[in-house]
Amino acid sequence: DVKVTQSSRYLVKRTGEKVFLECVQDMDHENMFWYRQDPGLGLRLIYFSYDVKMKEKGDIPEGYSVSREKKERFSLILESASTNQTSMYLCASSLYPSGSPYNEQFFGPGTRLTVL
Amino acid sequence: KQEVTQIPAALSVPEGENLVLNCSFTDSAIYNLQWFRQDPGKGLTSLLLIQSSQREQTSGRLNASLDKSSGRSTLYIAASQPGDSATYLCAVYGNQFYFGTGTSLTVIP
């Protein structure tokens, strides 16, 4: 079974702090994704990566950056946390190249981040 | 931009009832559609994936159908159980993954 793990289930930070959220997958998947999930807005894509050291902006990248130094690990960085970044953060991975009908996403358990 | 809609937002049924959840999308140029289950405060669990060339997929009591031309998918749950209570989300995969906001299902014992 594919396993996607996230470094924390719950996190509380102060405004202005630098925050690191880490995601690790153990199935050698090529693609990794970071989403945030807010009530009424659904899942929104922040960043994704199709290869090591490669990143692409999603729909809401402002205020975030990412790092993918190793294939299995994808980190989301909040350079200076703000209260409007309080949310559930979900990491996902998938195996196949872009455009494959076999591309299935597998999700981690999520990190509930609260910024005070 | 692709828009994915799930109606109703919430559904409550008695145990044992068969039910259908709906998902519609605006752009039929998709590679696949995936159904997920999400329990409160948890991540998403993949239930079924239907490739664009397929019409349906089945897993146990779950059956998902896809009509790409009309932009619709349904998730059929047979003989519902209280353990089926969760939020069900659909996602379509085109140039990226697009998610609906989900249907919150409550199965009453």
Rg of chain B, rounded, reads 13 Å
Sheet with most strands of chain B? 6 strands, mixed
Major protein interface: A-B, 25 and 23 residues
Terminal Cα separation of chain B, in Å?
41 Å
Tell me roughly what share of residues is in helical segments of chain A: under 10%
Q: By helix and strand content of chain A, what is the structural category?
A: mainly beta
Order of helices and strands of chain A: EEEEEEEEEEE
Q: Provide a count of the helices of chain A.
A: 0
**SSE series of chain B:** EEEEEEEEEEE
DSSP helix fraction of chain B: under 10%
Radius of gyration of chain A, whole Å: 13 Å
State mean pLDDT of chain A (0 to 100 scale): 94
Short summary of the structure?
Chain A has 116 residues and is mostly beta strands.
Kindly list the characteristics that best describe this protein:
heterodimer, A: 116 residues, mainly beta, 7-stranded mixed beta sheet, 4-stranded antiparallel beta sheet, 0% helix, 52% strand, globular, B: 109 residues, 6-stranded mixed beta sheet, 5-stranded antiparallel beta sheet
Topology:
The complex is a heterodimer of chains A (116) and B (109).
Chain A: E1 4-6, E2 10-13, E3 19-25, E4 31-38, E5 42-49, E6 56-57, E7 64-70, E8 73-78, E9 87-94, E10 106-107, E11 111-115
Parallel strand pairs in A: 2-11
Antiparallel strand pairs in A: 1-3, 3-8, 4-5, 4-9, 5-6, 7-8, 9-10, 9-11
Chain B: E1 4-5, E2 10-14, E3 19-25, E4 32-38, E5 44-51, E6 56-59, E7 62-67, E8 72-77, E9 86-93, E10 97-99, E11 103-108
Parallel strand pairs in B: 2-11
Antiparallel strand pairs in B: 1-3, 3-8, 4-5, 4-9, 6-7, 7-8, 9-10, 9-11
